[in-house]
Specification:
Layout: H1 2-24, H2 37-42, H3 45-48, H4 53-61, H5 70-83, H6 87-113, H7 116-128, H8 133-137, H9 142-164, H10 167-183, H11 190-199, H12 211-224, H13 226-243, H14 256-275, H15 297-312, H16 318-331, H17 354-368, H18 374-401, H19 405-415, H20 420-432, H21 436-449, H22 454-466, H23 470-483, H24 488-500, H25 504-517, H26 522-534, H27 538-551, H28 556-569, H29 572-585, H30 590-605
Helix pairs in contact: 1-6, 1-7, 1-18, 4-5, 5-6, 5-9, 5-10, 6-7, 6-9, 7-17, 7-18, 9-10, 10-13, 11-16, 14-15, 15-16, 16-17, 19-20, 20-21, 20-22, 21-22, 22-23, 22-24, 23-24, 24-25, 25-26, 26-27, 26-28, 27-28, 28-29, 29-30
Length: 619
């Protein structure tokens, strides 16, 4: 009996893997998206340097992006070691982690309940549900799939501990939970999930109906988890400290009454989108004080009704209370009472919590079908396959949106209200496509919607600069700096404009401030090198360009700048050698080949005893 069951479970696992890859294989052709991926990977020199000591120190000792997520950074650094700046590789890793999570869900739920069929259904819906696409298709959300991977390993180890009480299993659960929290502090409620599972399906509460026995069991099981509670408490404090760097919004920005009302609404929204996952977006703007109590009447009624049903069926159908509290509890840290960012809700927040709803449905539906026998099994199979098929098609369609920045943010604006975040991101995506008119129009609208956002002023400055509207660009950069002085980008943008206006002392000041804020940006070193070259400070120009190459050894413009400055100084041989290095970095660079030819001809024309300084070549 055991061998056929093992073969059946292996086949189900293979089908789940094929299902996951069938929905997500298309990400292999996707690029980085304009939102957050550049700061996480594309422009992050610590990540692109791969696994180096300086990167390890940075990952473990700094709050970055208002997060402390060292394991996520190490994961991205490992990818960078393998894939460099090739986006497909990062996408593949995300998909493989999601596939591993799907298999872990199937294995763990089967181990807990002894029922492979419903467990496979839970894993299949988890694999393809459109609400989970953001966590997988967005490289930045590596932290979601990675922390869930280690969180599920912790759950697996705990389930094994509950069965055999081996200390090694408890230690494994503790270590895996710590690793999960080092990827992202999402699983801070996992010890509470363990307690729920102790009730059902692990059955670790006493079978007696006596209240005293129940209290004794609860005290024992809570005491058993004290090390886990202490662990998550420490990481919770760390998360709050990290978010205090800029992620947490004040009560003045989002009043507590608005947070409470939105939290009630959000619970209903997540439950509804679990059932009908249409009109999903990368960003949902927060309504702030526009939300009124009447607006949360329906979700509040649903929450109360669902809770009553779960409590009434606590003995007859214990999976309802377990699944419902799993959903409510694991979503609680993300629901918005502590408001992080400007979003109202986020698809990625549902990655773990929806497992509770899947669990409840997977066990409830069979209990509602009358009778036994083959016909009932066929009906259940048909219902399950239909649900997986529908959600799979919707998931496949949702994944496709992430293949194009412009499409992604146009869709977000189409299914939500007009908002500055999506407008600005769409404008930046259009700017990358060199649609300057479209970019400017969208980012100007973003500034109208949120004039107090430094980022949109910075983006508008970039759009104006691309359109050669330098005075307008400088004005927007200065507004961005006035709102958020410790952002490197507007300082650098303003510095380039001041350089064009030959206001070199002011430009140098802006570039130096940008370096203080972000010392790993090779473009800032390049801009300083250009400035020093204009001032004929040749040695310092070369020094800045070399510092840029230390940050990014493949930065072509810094290498080209060295070659140009050496040419300006009359060091023809050294300049030719430097241009050869440019060609080594960019073999198709026609300008470098032309300069080598011109310098070689110049060298041949000069007397051997003379080495006059040539005129500065036009760049």
């Amino acid at each position: 009996m055991r061998k056929p069951r093992l073969r059946s479970n292996f086949l189900l696992g293979a089908l789940l893997l094929a299902l996951t890859l069938g929905v997500y294989f298309q990400v292999c052709g996707f690029d980085f998206i304009i939102l957050d991926d550049p700061s996480y990977v594309k422009w992050n020199r610590y990540v692109l340097d791969g696994l180096k000591l300086s990167g390890l120190k940075w990952a473990f000792t700094q709050f970055n992006d208002s997060n402390w997520i060292p394991l996520t950074w190490l994961s991205l650094m490992l990818d960078a070691t393998i894939y460099k700046n090739w986006p497909d590789g990062y996408h593949v890793t995300n998909v493989l982690l999601h596939a591993a999570n799907v298999l872990l869900v199937f294995i763990i739920f089967t181990r807990m309940t002894g029922r492979a069929g419903p467990s496979a259904f839970v894993a299949a819906i988890f694999a393809v549900h459109p609400l989970h696409v953001e966590s997988v298709a967005w490289i930045t959300e590596r932290k979601d799939v990675l922390c869930t991977f280690f969180g599920l390993l912790s759950l697996w180890a705990y389930v094994s501990y509950a069965h055999n009480h081996r200390r090694s299993r408890y230690i494994a659960a503790f270590v895996c939970l710590a690793l999960s929290l080092m990827a992202k502090q999402t699983f801070v409620t996992l010890p509470c999930v363990f307690l729920l599972l102790d009730y059902w399906p692990l059955g670790r509460f006493g079978q007696s109906d006596g209240l005293s026995q129940l209290r004794a069991d609860l005290r024992h099981l809570v005491a058993e988890k004290i090390p886990l509670f202490l662990l998550v408490a420490g990481f919770s404090v760390l998360a709050v400290l990290a978010q205090a760097e800029g992620g947490i919004r004040s009560l003045a920005a989002v009043p507590f009454s608005a947070r409470v009302l939105n939290s009630i609404w959000a619970y209903g929204w997540y439950a509804w989108k679990a059932l009908v996952p249409l009109d999903l977006a990368i960003f949902y703007p927060h309504p702030l004080e526009r939300l009124r109590p009447i607006g949360v009447l329906i979700p509040a009624t649903f929450l109360v009704a669902a809770s009553v049903v779960a409590v009434v069926n606590v003995r007859r159908r214990p999976y309802l209370i377990v699944g419902w509290l799993w959903f409510l509890g694991t979503l609680f840290p993300l629901i918005g009472l502590i408001q992080i960012g400007k979003q109202r809700v986020a698809d990625r927040y549902a990655y773990l919590p929806l497992l509770g709803l899947y669990l409840a449905v997977a066990w409830l539906v069979p209990s509602l079908l009358p009778g036994r026998g083959r016909m009932r099994q066929w009906i259940l199979a048909a219902l399950a396959l239909s649900a997986v098929g529908v959600y799979g098609l919707l998931g496949f369609r949702e994944v496709a949106l992430w293949g194009d920045d412009v499409q992604l943010f146009e869709h977000a604006l189409a299914v939500t209200e007009d908002n500055a975040m999506s407008r600005s991101a769409l404008g930046c995506a259009l700017l990358v496509r060199e649609d300057i008119k479209g970019a400017t129009k969208n980012i100007e609208r973003a500034v109208q919607l949120d004039p107090d956002d430094a980022l949109v002023h910075d983006d508008l400055g970039s759009a104006y600069q691309a359109a050669k509207r330098l005075e307008d660009a400088a004005r927007e950069y200065r507004k961005a700096i006035a709102i958020k002085e410790d952002s490197a980008s507007p300082h650098e943008g303003l510095g380039t404009i001041l350089s064009q206006w030959h206001q070199y002392p002011e430009a140098r000041k802006e570039f130096n401030r940008a370096l203080e804020i972000e010392p790993k940006d090779p473009m800032t070193y390049y801009n300083l090198s250009m400035l020093c070259d204009e001032l004929r400070e040749y040695d310092q120009a070369i020094d800045y360009a070399r510092q840029g190459l230390e940050v990014d050894p493949k930065h072509v413009e810094c290498q080209r700048q060295i070659a140009h400055v050496l040419s300006d100084q009359g060091h023809i041989d050294e300049s030719i050698a430097a241009y050869h290095k440019v060609i080594a970095l960019a073999p198709a660079d026609a300008e470098a080949r032309l300069r080598i030819r011109d310098l070689t001809e110049q060298k041949l024309k000069e007397p051997a005893s003379k080495n006059p300084k040539p005129a500065s070549p036009a760049r």
